[in-house]
Amino acid sequence: MRKLMTVAALAGAFGAGGCGVDLFGTEGKDDRAIYCYQALVGIDCYPAPNHRDERRLIAYTGPAPETYPKPLPPPEPTLYAPEQVSYWVKDPEPVPTAAPSKSRAAVSRQPLPPARR
After folding, report:
1. How far is CA 99 from the centre of its chain?
2. Is 46 within 8 Å of 37 (Cβ atoms)?
3. pLDDT tens track for 8-22
4. Which of 62, 63, 111, 116 is most deeply buried (CB count within 10 A of its CB)?
5. What is the largest CA-CA distance in the chain?
6. Can you state the percent helix, strand and coil of the chain, rounding each to 5?
7. Nearest 5 degrees, angle CA 53-CA 58-CA 61?
C-alpha cells in the first residue's frame, strides 16, 4: 500500500509539472534558421547553409542543411597556353662582397639631441 501511494504521488507530481507554464515563453525565441561553421579564428554563422563548407558545420537551427538544394558546380574553365616568345628574362646574379668592417658598423658615439617638450 505504501509503495502504491509513493508511485501515485510521484505520478501526480510529474503530471502536474507537465501542465505548468513555460518559464521562458516564446516572445524571446527567434525562429530564423542559422548555420554556424568553424573558421580559422572563430565561428561564422549564416542564414542559409554553405554546401561547400559542409565539413566545417558545427551547429544549426532550422531545417537540416541537406533539405536545401545544392547549387550546380561552376563550369570548367577553358585553359589555353600563353603566346610563345623568343626571349627570356633572367635577373642578374648577385655579386659576393665582404662583410662591412666593425668600425663602420659601430654605433655612433655622438650624444643624442635634447628631447623636445
Report:
1. 47
2. yes
3. 777 766 666 666 555
4. 62
5. 105
6. 25, 10, 60
7. 100
